[in-house]
């Protein structure tokens, strides 16, 4: 067909004349004529001409009701390409025509075409081969090879392409919101299951291409869609400490009379469960897959990266944090003490970043609230989170298809989604679980997600695990600690890894604090001391060793500080192994390793020293405390022989290589660490000299 064959005037005349001349039962012939002109319009017309063409089509449809009802199903997909128009009014009139199709067409036929549109929606530019393959698949799906427009966007910019896809998705979802209530069925759950599964698949693809704002917009629209499916959800309002009390329900309207009964029938319960499962998957995909907001500056920290982190480099920059753990620390654990006065820290930057992205927390709150309204209990969420790993099931389940079940009990929640729902619910005080303790509840949850699942690479999972751990320990303590020290050590090691590998400064701090609090809460001090020694001997992370030295220091200070007891007239010190020289004897070789053996030779000494520097600095500062506090040093057995042994095996190997280290540091273009080490060693020398 040449340019001379069809002009705008001829196209308008053709679709107008055909509508007037063809009989209603000949609607298929009209659809063929219309499809030909729509394809030609997309290929050859300017955006302004496309608008004129669609305006004429709208006039035809509004004046031919019977024809419109018959062909509406065919309009949903073929009109989608117009939404990419650079002329706003062209995209807007295409949206109005899609809406008209959803309102007037046969609901079941339109329903099928909407799901087809969602299924075939692409979120990123694909190769010509993929496009041809998609066209063939879509034609096979419909049985008509000519019904899918061959015109694809010429703009291959991924961001623009994704925004166009977002507009198409929103219009398809709006059409589904219109057509869903129009479908009469004995078992509406069958339709609901299919559409939720289709939406979930498209949403999962969207998270890979859209920015955070785009994905948040979809989540908000999905919540609005569910309120159309279940109108009583629209009448409910999420509780807020800043909102006025809700008004009493009005009894004069039909909507009030139609409120859900106390006992739902099986079909209603099945629909509720489908929506809950859907939301749990959406929440999981939203918080675990979404790109981090662009406002956030990438915060890095020094130190070695855990292998599991390296293997996930391709997803760097993904995953959202709600900030449950940080907020609990600020409001409950350390009120008015969590901020360092004077200047901004990395943790302050993270707080500001979350405060600038309130839409994320609002979306999570809305999902959590609706799940509660649909019957999800805290006990069920706890049960799902504590359930052992299913080795035959892919834990990355937020893109999984929701099957068409026969009963509500057959529909599982997303395991990751259940954890995130549990954290959010407990963070706002909707319910309390008096027996929620570290053992057995939180330890099993932490192992399920951080050992048997990929939680170590997912910021939201880490956030939830840290929050629930802090809540359990602060509210109810350790619980029944296991007889095996190894099980306790494994639990602590989960958080030790977070403290060294997390990209979040706040999560690293909170994980380290949780280790210290749990260790301090354990009633058996022999196990506490054994953990310190085990960490110093076997932990692969030097920053964790440095942290455990800080824990050791706190234990010793606590054990040697007099405490006033009601039954005694004067303060007394606790009877603890941490306040005796036996403590130093037990861990001396682990605390002060022979660095001559560690360095091996001068050529490798600098690289090795850089690796152990965090632990070395922490140990020297701890040793300096023992030297400067003569009473404390005496209790801990720091005598002349002790000092000479520390000097020979731990300090001297570094002292004689200081100049070597300084030169190597300068060659690398860095400075400062060696000078600080040299200054600290000088202070140790002075303090040790005072002991002579």
Question: How would you describe the overall organization of this protein?
Answer:
The protein is an all-alpha fold and about 700 residues long. Helices cover about 65% and strands about 0% of the residues. The protein contains 32 helices and no strands. Helix 1 (about 10-20) runs parallel beside helix 3 and helix 22 (about 485-500) packs antiparallel against helix 23. The chain is elongated, with a radius of gyration of 33 Å.
Helical fraction equals 55-70%
In what range is the share of β-strand residues? under 5%
Describe the biggest sheet? none
Secondary structure tally: strands: 0
Q: Based on CA inertia axes, which overall geometry fits?
A: elongated
* N-to-C CA distance: 104 Å
The stretches of 5 or more residues where confidence is low (pLDDT under 50) are 127-153, 239-261, 295-315, 392-396
- Total of helices: 32
Gyration radius, to the nearest Å?
33 Å
List the helices and strands and how they pair.
Layout: H1 8-21, H2 27-44, H3 47-63, H4 65-78, H5 88-104, H6 107-120, H7 128-142, H8 158-179, H9 188-207, H10 212-229, H11 232-235, H12 254-257, H13 266-289, H14 307-310, H15 324-333, H16 346-355, H17 358-373, H18 378-386, H19 415-427, H20 441-450, H21 459-476, H22 485-501, H23 505-521, H24 525-538, H25 542-560, H26 581-591, H27 595-599, H28 602-628, H29 630-635, H30 640-655, H31 658-667, H32 673-690
Helix pairs in contact: 1-2, 1-3, 2-4, 3-5, 4-5, 4-6, 5-8, 6-8, 8-10, 9-13, 10-13, 10-17, 13-17, 13-19, 15-21, 18-19, 19-21, 20-21, 21-23, 22-23, 23-25, 24-25, 24-26, 25-28, 28-31, 28-32, 31-32
GO cellular component, one term: cytoplasm
Protein name: Similar to UPF0649 protein C1442.02 acc. no. Q76PC4
Organism: Pyronema omphalodes (strain CBS 100304) (Pyronema confluens)
């Amino acid at each position: 067909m040449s340019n001379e064959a069809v002009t705008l005037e001829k196209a308008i005349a053709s679709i107008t004349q055909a509508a007037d001349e063809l009989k209603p039962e000949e609607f298929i012939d009209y659809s063929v004529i219309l499809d030909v002109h729509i394809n030609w319009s997309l290929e050859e017309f300017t955006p302004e001409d496309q608008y004129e063409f669609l305006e004429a089509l709208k006039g035809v449809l509004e004046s031919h009701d019977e024809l419109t009802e018959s062909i509406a199903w065919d309009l949903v997909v073929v009109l989608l390409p117009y939404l990419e128009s650079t002329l706003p009014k062209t995209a807007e009139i295409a949206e109005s025509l899609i809406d008209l199709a959803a309102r007037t067409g046969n609901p079941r036929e339109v329903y099928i075409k909407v799901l087809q549109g969602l299924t075939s929606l692409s979120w990123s530019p694909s190769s010509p081969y993929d496009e041809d393959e998609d066209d063939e698949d879509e034609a096979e799906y419909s049985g008509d090879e000519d019904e899918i427009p061959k015109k694809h966007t010429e703009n291959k910019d991924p961001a623009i392409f994704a925004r166009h896809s977002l507009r198409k998705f929103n219009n398809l979802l709006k059409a589904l919101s219109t057509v869903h209530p129009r479908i009469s069925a004995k078992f509406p759950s069958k339709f609901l299951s299919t559409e939720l599964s289709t939406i979930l698949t498209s949403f999962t693809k969207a998270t890979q291409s859209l920015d955070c704002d785009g994905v948040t917009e979809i989540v908000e629209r999905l919540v609005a869609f569910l309120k159309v499916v279940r109108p009583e959800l629209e009448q409910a309002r999420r509780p807020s400490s800043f909102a006025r009390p809700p008004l009493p329900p009005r009894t004069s309207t039909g909507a009030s009379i139609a409120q859900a009964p106390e006992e739902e029938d099986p079909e209603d319960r099945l629909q509720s469960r489908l929506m809950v499962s859907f939301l749990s998957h959406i929440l999981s995909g939203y918080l675990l897959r979404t790109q981090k907001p662009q406002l956030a500056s990438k915060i890095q920290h020094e130190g070695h990266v855990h292998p599991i982190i390296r293997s996930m480099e391709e997803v760097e920059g993904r995953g959202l944090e709600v900030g449950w753990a940080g907020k609990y620390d600020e409001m409950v654990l350390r009120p008015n003490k969590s901020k360092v006065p004077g200047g901004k820290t990395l943790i302050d930057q993270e707080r500001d970043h979350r405060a600038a992205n309130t839409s994320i927390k609002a979306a999570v709150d809305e999902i959590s609230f609706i799940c509660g309204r649909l019957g999800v209990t805290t006990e069920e969420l706890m049960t799902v989170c504590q359930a052992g790993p299913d080795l035959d099931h892919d834990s990355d389940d937020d893109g999984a298809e929701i099957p068409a079940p026969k009963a509500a009990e057959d529909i599982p929640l997303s395991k990751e989604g259940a954890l995130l729902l549990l954290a959010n619910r407990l963070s706002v005080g909707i319910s309390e679980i008096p027996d929620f303790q570290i053992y057995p509840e939180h330890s099993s949850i932490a192992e399920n997600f951080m050992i048997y699942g990929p939680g170590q690479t997912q910021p939201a999972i880490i956030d939830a695990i840290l929050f629930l751990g802090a809540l359990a320990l602060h509210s109810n303590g350790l619980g029944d600690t296991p007889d095996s020290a190894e099980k306790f050590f494994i639990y602590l090691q989960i958080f030790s890894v977070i403290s060294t590998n997390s990209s979040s400064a706040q999560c690293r701090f909170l994980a380290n604090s949780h280790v210290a609090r749990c260790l301090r809460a354990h009633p058996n001090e022999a196990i506490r001391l054994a953990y310190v020694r085990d960490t110093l001997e076997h932990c692969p992370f030097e920053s964790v060793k440095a942290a455990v030295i800080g824990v050791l220091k706190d234990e010793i200070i606590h054990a040697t500080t007099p405490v006033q007891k009601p039954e005694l007239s004067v303060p007394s010190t606790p009877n603890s192994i941490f306040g005796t020289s036996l403590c130093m004897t037990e861990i001396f070789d682990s605390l002060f390793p022979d660095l001559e053996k560690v360095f091996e030779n001068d050529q490798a000494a600098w690289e090795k020293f850089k690796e152990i520097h965090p632990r070395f600095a922490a140990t020297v500062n701890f040793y300096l405390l023992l030297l400067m506090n003569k009473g404390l040093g005496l209790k801990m057995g720091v005598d002349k022989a002790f000092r000479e042994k520390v000097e020979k095996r731990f300090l001297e190997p570094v002292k004689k290589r200081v100049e070597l280290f300084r030169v190597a540091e300068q060659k690398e273009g860095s400075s400062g660490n060696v000078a600080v080490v040299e200054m600290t060693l000088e202070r140790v020398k002075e303090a040790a000299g005072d002991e002579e």
